[in-house]
Amino acid sequence: MTSSPYHPPVKRSVQIDRHKTSISLEPLFWEMLKQAAEREGEPINALVARIDAERIKSPTPPGLASAIRVWLVVNA
Question: Has UniProt tagged this entry with the keyword Transferase (predicted)?
Fold first, then answer.
């Protein structure tokens, strides 16, 4: 992670159900996602897929990057 939490989003590819997609998150959130995946005992791709499945069930689903940020804050 960079020394400052204020950094533009970084785009990375993840795979959800054999489908690659790009997600842009700030480095702070990428680090939080990595730590959450370790804590949950699953790969980042699996955690993102789970967050995506939860997001889709919402009456007004946000974008995936927003859903990841919210999930990370709620599950901190």
Answer: yes
